[in-house]
């Protein structure tokens, strides 16, 4: 899988074909891609479907705006994730990806916004409504690897956007920084190419570098498996017992918990 790692290094994401469509197939992928020395943790794949996500406030009709995954884990969010497509929707459901590093370069190259990238690494903002995390948008991993977080104002409305910290002494400047950052991301999302995963396709994403989102779709049977992945190049595993690590966001009460259990369809009924 050295070619996959090279593709991730170069492009921040890649698609692997013919990976199977089952939860077991998804569970095998992180070790296949990153190998055992490189893999720190990869909890069981979680179901990405209308059935599971609607209960978490994410509907298929939502235009799921650009974000990074794993805000539930604060600044120890997973450095990679993958989505294995099991059932595609014939209409809609395109995923888009935005290169966050390129976006920082674009902001730095414009006189009006050149102050924003350094500010993103210095000014702490409120990152999430789940685990308390008041840290800069841009933090760093081993070897200075840049780790960006992104959460635009909804939809889905279940997720809070990155926002000015209640403790900020410079709330106006922080608000301006976030507004410029989010506006640049939304513009990039509007013009981003859409990726339509087919059954057996696995989309692997550098979650420190890339932002992603999803267009609305029509088929309620659409199903993907999500794996959150922590590697040795990440900022480390969250401080929870490894067997309690999940590939799912927190619920409305802020608790990170597994899915409710396989759906009837998954049990083959
Ligand atoms: Fe996501």
UniProtKB/TrEMBL annotation:
Q: Which residues form the TauD/TfdA-like domain?
A: 5-228
Q: Region annotation Disordered: residue ranges?
A: 239-269
Which SUPFAM superfamilies does the UniProt entry name for this protein? Clavaminate synthase-like (SSF51197)
Show the GO MF annotations: oxidoreductase activity
Q: Name one GO biological process term.
A: antibiotic biosynthetic process
In terms of Pfam families, this protein maps to: TauD
Organism's domain of life? Eukaryota
Q: Which InterPro entries does the record match to this protein?
A: AlphaKG_dependent_hydroxylases (IPR050411), TauD-like_sf (IPR042098), TauD/TfdA-like (IPR003819)
Keywords in alphabetical order: Antibiotic biosynthesis, Oxidoreductase
What protein does this entry describe? TauD/TfdA-like domain-containing protein
Species source reads: Effrenium voratum
């Amino acid at each position: 899988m050295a070619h996959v790692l090279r593709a991730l290094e170069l492009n921040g994401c890649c698609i692997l074909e013919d990976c199977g469509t089952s939860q077991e197939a998804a569970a095998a992928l992180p070790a296949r891609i990153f190998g055992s020395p490189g893999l720190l943790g990869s909890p069981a794949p979680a179901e990405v479907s209308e059935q599971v996500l609607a209960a978490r406030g994410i509907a298929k009709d939502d235009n799921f705006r650009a974000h990074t995954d794993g805000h539930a884990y604060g600044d120890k969010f997973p450095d990679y994730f993958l989505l294995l497509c099991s059932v595609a929707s014939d209409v809609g459901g395109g995923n888009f990806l935005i290169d966050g590093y390129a976006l920082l370069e674009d902001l730095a190259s414009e006189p009006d916004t050149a102050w924003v990238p350094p500010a993103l690494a210095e000014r702490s903002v409120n990152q999430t409504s789940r685990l308390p995390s008041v840290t800069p948008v841009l933090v760093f991993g081993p070897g200075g690897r840049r780790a960006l977080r992104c959460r635009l104002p909804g939809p889905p409305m279940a997720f809070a956007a990155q926002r000015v910290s209640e403790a900020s002494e410079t709330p106006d400047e922080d608000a301006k920084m976030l507004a410029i950052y989010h506006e640049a991301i939304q513009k990039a999302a509007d013009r981003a190419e859409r990726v339509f995963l087919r059954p057996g396709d696995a989309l692997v994403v550098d979650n420190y570098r890339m932002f992603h989102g999803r267009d609305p779709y029509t088929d309620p049977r659409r199903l993907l498996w999500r794996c959150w992945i922590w590697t040795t190049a990440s900022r480390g595993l969250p401080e929870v017992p490894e067997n309690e690590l999940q590939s799912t966001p927190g619920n409305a009460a802020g608790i990170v918990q597994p899915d409710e259990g396989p759906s009837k369809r998954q049990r083959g009924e």
